[in-house]
Amino acid sequence: MNTNDLSDKELIASLVGPRLAERIYHGSLASLVHQPNPSFARKKLFIAQEFVRRALQEELSNRKAISSISLMRDYLKLTFAGKEHEVFMVMLLDTKGRLIDAEELFRGTLAQAAIYSREVVKCTLKYNAASVIFAHNHPSGVAQPSDADYHTTHRLQSALSLIDVKVLDHFVIAGNECWSFAENGLI
Questions:
Q1: Domain boundaries, the chain
Q2: Letter string b/e over residues 112-131, b meaning 16 or more CB atoms within 10 A of that residue's CB
Q3: With respect to CATH, is domain 65-180 assigned 3.40.50.720?
Q4: Is this structure's pTM higher than 0.85?
């Protein structure tokens, strides 16, 4: 089956059946995925989304993460999809730049999350990571980092440099937008 040629509705129908697809799909995948109180059919879609996220995480574990920027962006967009509050995550990398694990360290409100350097350092040491990539979301829909984001990134860089751990990037995710500190020359 060549799924590239199928419409969104046809893809959904192949997963949940044509009748359910007709009932739940109303012209937008985003509105389908972000519905409160998901139905059985939507739960199947959430499961499919989780499979894709895990497959991307597995792929990042097998190759150098920082050289797989598009893969990293896809993984982060799926990880943060639908979150209505700020979440801060640290991706822990081995000496070859492969993903060891990704851990959600802090959860906040709609506009902010408190980030503690001590907890980031503890997590990094727990996994014996050689380098890290930070990521957090902006539920507001604007991927541009705030002044607090700049300050937090530099504070964490300083703390981790004391234990010889390099910060490779910090991504800010807002919907389908993904802003990178490294790509903008700030790391």
A1: 7-37, 65-180
A2: bbebeeeebbebbeeeebbb
A3: no
A4: no
